[in-house]
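Q: Sequence in, structure out?
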Amino acid sequence: MIMIGLKVPKNRANDVRKVLLKKSIMEIDYKIKQEDNFVIIPLKNNLNNDQLESLDLSLENLVDCEFEYQKREPKSLKDYLKKKIDPQNLDEIKGSFDIIGDVVILEIPEDLESDKFKIGKAALDFTKRKTVFRKGGKVKGIKRIRELEHLAGSEISETLHREYGARFLMDVKKVYFSPRLATERHRILGMVKDGETIIDMFAGVGPLSILIALSKDVKIYSIDINPDAYNYLKKNMVINKVEDKIIPVLGDASDYLKLANILADRIIMNLPGLAYKYLDIAVDSLKEGGIIHYYEFSSDFDVALDRIKKAAHPRKFKVINKRKVRSKSPGKWHLGLDVKIL
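A: Exactly. Output:
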């Protein structure tokens, strides 16, 4: 296509291109043309004298040129939605979303209800996955289940997710799983030593238990009260060939540990909404010098530290690490603390 172009020396091309992009003057759907020691940059419209002077160029640098069209792949979900929904609504769409295996899970504000299927189809095309669901509410109760609304693709909600060499089969409608905690799981894995006895109090489908069992010589009690999570945990133990290292338990962690008479080197308590209710039994089930990985939703660490202090009494404790795992809501965090109970 013949259009106006800006001819600049190659050694200045990158700096000029950045300025043109910043001012939305460059035509990005066409390729920059090379010509001897110059490049010709396609423009959306002509430049006036002031604009040219600001680039230390003149009218002689403006030329008519034939440019080659370049197909540009959308780089984000919002790119896919341009010209498909009201531009004013694009800013309300969250750029991040969860991908679990072949399943995409979106958050869509209520005021975009009429566009939800367009957004779902765009997410399907952008991610090249098989299924798109919309979060229908908050994670509820100790079973940690949330409603999901189907938006696009297959309606099958069972999928196989891969993480750090492990594979986890699950039905996203029946169990809780967060791919955003992958880094946190890997961080804890790095702290585990061979020979440990570990209690994973809210194991879900077993992501952390299995990651640990794959690379460490350990014994893990993996507990969950959700029958569906328990069943997938057992399947995932087989898939990952760690049946000899994990003892799956269906039931409430507190009820089980009161009767099991287990003393662990390490206890994992990743149920931030309710873990505080289990701190007493966790301390009672921990060896001297053992470590608790405790999580809580809070605005700061003071409340969590106070709970740990009360549960540990009369034993002493030492905070090894504390961190904000991720944002929960404005002013509220998913907090993590690694605490040694002496």
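The domain at 77-156 is CATH 3.30.300.110 (GMP Synthetase; Chain A, domain 3).
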